[in-house]
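Continuing the series of single-chain predictions for the mutant panel. This is the parent chain; the variants come on the following pages.
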Amino acid sequence: MAWIRLDPVTRKRLQRFRQIRRGWWAFLILMAAIVLSVFAPFLAESRALVVAYQGQWHFPTFQHLPMSTFGQAPPPAWDTADIETEYLRLQREWQAERFLHARDRRAALAAGADAAALAAIDERYPNRDHWVLMPPIPWDPYQNDFWSNEVLFEIQRALDAGDAARAEFIARRDRLHELADAIHDGRLGALLADPEKSATGKLLGLARSGAMPSIAHLGQVPPLAPDAGRGHWLGTDAQGRDVAARLLYGFRISIFFALFLVLTGQLVGTVVGSLQGYLGGRFDMISQRLIEILISIPFLYVVIVLAALFQPSFWMLLAIMAIFQWIAITFFMRTEMYREKTREYCLAARSYGASHLRIVFRHLLPNCLTPLVTFTPFAVVGAIFALTGLDYLGYGLPAPTPSWGELIDQALQVENRSKLWLILAPFTALTVTLVLVVFIGESVREAFDPKRYARYE
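Parent structure:
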């Protein structure tokens, strides 16, 4: 049983749309991206998807779990009940334990250790069998990551305290294996004592000298280049936030803002334009004058004034832009309705006593929807551009809301123009999205061409 019954003309138009390959594939890709953005918390989030700990499975995406749940050490002066578990750090701490446990067991077996010695090694690493499954992007869009500027100081504090084991564990945890090997083998002391390799005798000097290439990128401030080992696939922005996560969440905000805005505007514009064309007379004259007044109001000035008085929000911007969005489609629907209501099929329906509602919805609108259907994808493009432009100018969504316009603003700052990842990421995302929507719009316009199919009944 079909839930939706389509008339033959509509079926032909949809079949024609599917035959236009670039539009059909663009539609599928865009729909897949929208679906993925809906599940963004499972793709880009600092909370783990699954944690296996002491024979129990935990699902942090759906619950708040403090550090005490997994015995994680909090930052200084914090209690484990105060803050949520740092799942990426927890994952890497357990991975470091597995590595150290396997290394110590191999060394013990090579030395002929007995069962008691092996049991002592097992007891030293109680979390070796636990594991954490993180999302593909292990960062949420609001999280700041200053790890590259902090990890060397954390390791340096352990070395200054004479705790080489702790220093090595931190290096293993953060996958600085060359540094960890140097600490374990005792070679680090000689490197730090050499003025040519570390002018300050500290790890920061060693990193800046380039004597140990694997840590040369540390000790820097954001924005940082892409780092697959850290999970920053597209690097970080100037506040240390993951660019990939902000692109994903920014896409979700932009596309749903555009869809809500366009659907609202097209609905209102269709109703007003259809009434203008069908009723005509005084209603048409008065409504046209009101529309002319709205057109004369500069949209950007309205947004600037309201942004100065109120904190902009998603729904506030949507309401302001919806006031102006519906106007354009009214002209097309008014013209279409004026033309169609004079045709013979409409006059025949009147002569048979059909009501005005039946004439409009059953006979006229199906033959007047071609402009609405064909202009809607391009209206989506305009809505995405408008929101991105407002965010770029600083009159859009408030910080720290993920926004493509805000990323573009960062990329165009003088100090960031050499950061190619920060420039390419938002421009590429915006370009690909708009190209997909334009391909869909062109294909829809061709498939719904009234010269190819017409319906008069």
